[in-house]
Design a protein that fits this description.
This protein is an alpha+beta fold. It has two domains: 79 residues, 3-Layer(aba) Sandwich (Glutaredoxin); 115 residues, Glutathione S-transferase Yfyf (Class Pi), Chain A, domain 2. 57% of the residues lie in helices and 8% in strands. A hairpin with a 5-residue loop joins strand 3 and strand 4. 37% of the residues are buried. Pfam families: GST_N_2 (PF13409).
């Protein structure tokens, strides 16, 4: 059985969807770097950075980094269609989100990690600039990858799942609705997929799909 370490409103939602698509047994251990408890202590023992999602495979391998986990599952279970489509562009897109969007969100959420004891004004300046870059990165993503989010059977592939999840943070959807409305609607298509929708609803119960 797969063991997934994560918590609601986090990137673990992507891996929950992927595991369901792979039709494998799994369970989630609630854990994160920002909460205490047995789950978080167990997470720290296998991933010292306490990053989520972290996935432990049935043979005991520890997998971290959302993009890497999605790629592994897609390769391990081809029938899941997680990597169905133009694989080169799917892989490129997954790493694009990890490098340009996910990393920016980490700076926005934890500016003190990068600035140490800098005063609040300096931290706020970093957050503002990083959020501006994040929104620009999403607009570029919309232009480059809009037609790469679905398998031929219209199920979201790994790139579609990751894009729909990570764009839920830091007002990215609002920016895309204004500057790339067609792509924003493509993300709504992912949101309403019958496998994706229940997971997103559990993670973000107050989110209204529009």
């Amino acid at each position: 059985m797969y063991t997934l370490y994560g918590i609601d409103e986090s990137g673990s939602c992507m891996i929950e969807i992927a595991l369901q698509r792979c039709a494998v047994p799994w369970h989630r251990v609630d854990a994160s770097s920002w909460q205490d408890g047995e789950g978080s202590e167990a997470l720290a023992r296998i991933n010292p950075l306490k990053q989520i999602p972290t996935l432990v495979t049935p043979d005991g391998q520890v997998l971290t980094e959302s993009a890497a986990i999605l790629i592994h599952l897609g390769l391990e279970f081809p029938a899941s269609d997680l990597l169905a489509g133009n694989r080169a562009q799917i892989l490129r897109g997954l790493l694009y989100i990890a490098a340009n969007c996910y990393s920016a969100i980490g700076i926005i959420d934890y500016p003190q990690r990068w600035l140490g004891n800098a005063d609040e004004a300096v931290q706020a300046q970093l957050v503002t600039g990083t959020r501006r870059y994040l929104h620009q990165a999403w607009v570029v993503f919309a232009d480059q990858f809009a037609d790469q989010l679905f398998a031929s059977n219209n199920a979201p592939n790994a790139l579609g799942i990751m894009a729909a999840a990570v764009s839920r943070w830091d007002d990215a959807r609002e920016v895309l609705s204004a500057l790339a409305p067609g792509f924003a609607q493509t993300l709504v298509q992912v949101d309403t997929d019958p496998v994706v929708a229940p997971v997103f609803a559990r993670h973000w119960p107050e989110w209204e799909v529009s």
